[in-house]
Amino acid sequence: MADTQDISAWIALFIGLYALGAAIGELRSPGSWAAMLDGFETSEALRFLTGIVVLALGATIYLVNPWRPDDWLSIVVTVIGGGMVVEGVVILGFGRPFLHFASAMMGAVNRAWALLSAGLGLVLVCVAMLRF
């Protein structure tokens, strides 16, 4: 079992690994994120399932992560969890318009978003590793 001091670091590690994996996938197969968003826009069931999963994961992160105002990583991880809850609710309530907005935001700069995701992933993994 993880020590409560390490929970924020473990969550940051796994979010960082997710961001790195997603970035590598997009860089190896450009346009896959745009195709995914197109699929979300056209499928009610996929949007609903995605909203439920994002909401549940965000709530889990928010509730499991210990709140320590003196620890900046704890604050960041809690904010990420809360943001995921809001994103899940928005996907459930405003799925098509929200995902259309996300698709327009990505536009033709998928590579830039992928590199940003990879950078964020690396930072989170490194910060987590320094905590162990």
TrEMBL record:
Domain of life: Bacteria
Segments crossing the lipid bilayer: 7-25, 45-65, 72-92, 112-130
UniProt entry keywords in alphabetical sequence: Membrane, Transmembrane, Transmembrane helix
Protein name in UniProt: DUF2065 domain-containing protein
Lineage: Bacteria, Pseudomonadati, Pseudomonadota, Alphaproteobacteria, Sphingomonadales
